Amino acid sequence: MQTCQILGSGHAVPHRILTNADLEQMVDTSDAWIIERSGIRQRHIAEPGSSLSDLAADAVKQALERAATSADEIDLIIVATVSADMKFPAMACLLQEKIGATKAAAFDISAACAGFIYGLHLAKSLMQTCAYQRVVVVAAEMLSSMVNWTDRNTCVLFGDGAGAVVLGPAEGNSGILSTTIHSDGNHSKLLYNPAGSQHVLTPEDLNNNFATINMQGREVFRHAVASMTAALNEALELAGLSAEDLDFIIPHQANNRIIEAIAKRFKVPPGKLIVNVERFGNTSAASIPIALNEAIQNGTIKKGATVGMTTFGAGLTWAGAVIKI
Ligand code: ACO
């Protein structure tokens, strides 16, 4: 069976930065509280009216260049997002047009913060069964478009961004060694945005912040730590490896305390843990590919490194992967 590897990666974030000091002017919060509870110091927030597919296109173009791949070679584009430009068509189709990937099939998947690893799982399976040679997996989110900016419980946590990888057939030791995905709809009300076909939006909904993120933070935290631990353990087992074999762990960048809890469970020394949540906040599905690309570009993660990734999000969804760069 054909296996696949990452040939190139890229990421993009909006230029505008929203600091904790800025948030102090908007809601009853403080820099000290946000840092203590989440580790976040700033996040990148898109200008109103800007397009997430533009950000995704920027990330993909970088990934294509690093993979020495032209857009017309792409067989498939998978976009993981819950904040696409439009309800339809799929953002993957809008992105296809922007990058000129004329022969690709393109679709979106919705797995919230777990979307990137869901995308890798799907891409790996389709490369095996359909013999695709070049697949782009993009995770892009503009959660600022659905944050209730008067709710201090949630508005301090999220940021916007996009990360992308280009996958091709594996060569040598490199490759996606394992992926695992899970979900549990019993807990869908812990984290959700109710806007959708079940409730046609009214003018009052706009004033009442109806179409925004609802979250039970404490419960989400508890599930996140347990699920992310289980997902990475399962991915390691599928790859026939143990935690000591990993050179790096990239956890979903939701919150420093969740990341520290994961590090403790896997006994990860600080140098092995990739963390950038303080600069980007929680960019949902985009958090892992942004962290991965940053670490590759700044020389932290080098060719031959074995990397564990684990994530968790609304659904509930959770997923893990082990890759060799
Ligand atoms: N500034 C100041 N005070 C605040 C803020 C804020 N921004 N937000 C909440 N508070 C207050 C609350 O109102 C509450 O006050 P009260 O005791 O007077 O009622 C107090 O702080 C404690 O609130 P908790 O919600 O219990 O605080 P907690 O320690 O759980 O921290 C947090 C909240 C940061 C949201 C935490 O629960 C968390 O990180 N949960 C995980 C959520 C998450 O990461 N979600 C992202 C999506 S899912 C994912 O990506 C993993």
Q: How is this structure best described in words?
A:
The protein has 325 residues and is α/β, with parallel strands linked by helices. The protein has two domains: 169 residues, Peroxisomal Thiolase, Chain A, domain 1 (3-Layer(aba) Sandwich); 148 residues, Thiolase/Chalcone synthase (Peroxisomal Thiolase, Chain A, domain 1). Helix content is 34%, strand content 23%. It is built from eleven helices and 13 strands. A five-stranded mixed beta sheet has the order 1-7-6-4-5, sandwiched between helices. Helix 3 crosses helix 4 and helix 8 packs parallel to helix 9. The longest helix has 23 residues. The protein is globular, with a radius of gyration of 19 Å. It binds acetyl coenzyme *A.
CATH topology of the largest domain: Peroxisomal Thiolase, Chain A, domain 1
What's the CATH H-level superfamily name of the largest domain? Thiolase/Chalcone synthase
Percent of residues in helices comes to: 25-40%
Uncertain runs are none
The total strand number stands at 13
Summed up, the helix count is 11
What separation lies between the terminal Cα atoms? 19 Å
Integer average pLDDT: 96
SS content category: alpha/beta
Overall geometric form: globular
Strand content: 15-25%
Question: How many structural domains does the protein architecture include?
Answer: 2
C-alpha Rg (nearest Å): 19 Å
- Please list the strands of the largest sheet in the order they lie side by side: 1-7-6-4-5
Return the CATH class of the largest domain: Alpha Beta
